[in-house]
Design goal:
This protein is an alpha+beta fold. It has one domain. It is 37% helix and 27% strand. Strands 1, 2, 3, 4, 5, 6, 7, 8, 9 and 10 form a ten-stranded mixed beta sheet that branches. Helix 1 packs across helix 4 and helix 1 runs parallel beside helix 6. The longest helix has 42 residues. It starts with a helix and ends with a helix.
């Protein structure tokens, strides 16, 4: 009887400790995929303008897999990570980005998406559930091409610049009406405590050490 109670006590202590890493596995996978997306974009010679804009960006939203309407019920979208910069990069907050339609060119059904948030207003808006791009924020496709001078990007004044790539090619992406919603349960699972997206990216009550490689990739991409 005593042995049984002892085993039950041990299980009661160890199961919660084991459960958190398991619950956070899906979130860490998304963080790792976001890092791969950033590194892949940064290696592309056509993305020099994005690197220049990233130096001035106040935040970034990375969606490693955006699926076109017809692949997911009710429209297009995907899960992503949102980070803000104030000297260095914050930990990632998890969000969903969805739209009723999508304007991917060349018949692509899926794409990697990076949104550069150029203003504090853009970062703050992303923290409000169901903010709509185009209605609440001005957005445009980010410039691409080897021949575009970095100085050209200083004349760009939109809140958000979108970069999307499908099948290894940069493609047009219509974000008009795209809605952003924070994933509260994912944020809590990843950090092991109840924490809001605002607390993560602006107040920085958690650090997100497991996302250090993503932060380093963003810093390297802006060099």
């Amino acid at each position: 009887m005593t042995r049984t109670l002892l085993l039950l006590g041990i299980l009661a202590l160890t199961i919660p400790a084991l459960a958190n890493p398991l619950r956070a596995g899906e979130q860490q996978d998304l963080v790792d995929k976001a890092r791969i997306t950033v590194e892949s974009f940064a290696r592309d010679p056509d993305v020099a303008p994005m690197r220049s804009l990233l130096k001035r960006a106040r935040g970034v939203l990375i969606v490693p897999q955006w699926l076109k309407a017809g692949f997911i019920i009710g429209g297009a979208g995907g899960s992503g990570v949102l980070l803000a910069r104030n000297g260095d990069w914050s930990g990632p907050a998890f969000v969903d980005m969805a739209a009723g339609s999508i304007g991917l060119q060349i018949g692509a059904q899926a794409a990697e998406v990076i949104l550069l948030l150029m203003t504090e207003r853009a970062v703050d808006a992303m923290l409000h559930n169901k903010v709509k791009i185009g209605a609440d924020l001005s957005a445009a496709a980010g410039p691409v091409g080897k021949g575009i001078e970095a100085a050209t990007t200083t004349n760009l004044r939109d809140d958000v610049y979108a970069y999307s790539r499908a099948k290894g090619l940069f493609v047009g992406l219509s974000l008009e009406g795209a809605a952003i919603k924070t994933k509260a349960k994912w944020n809590s699972a990843y950090y092991g405590e109840s924490v809001t997206a605002r607390q993560i990216v602006l107040e920085r009550v958690v650090t997100g050490e497991n996302a250090d490689s993503l932060k380093e990739a963003l810093m390297a991409a802006a060099r």
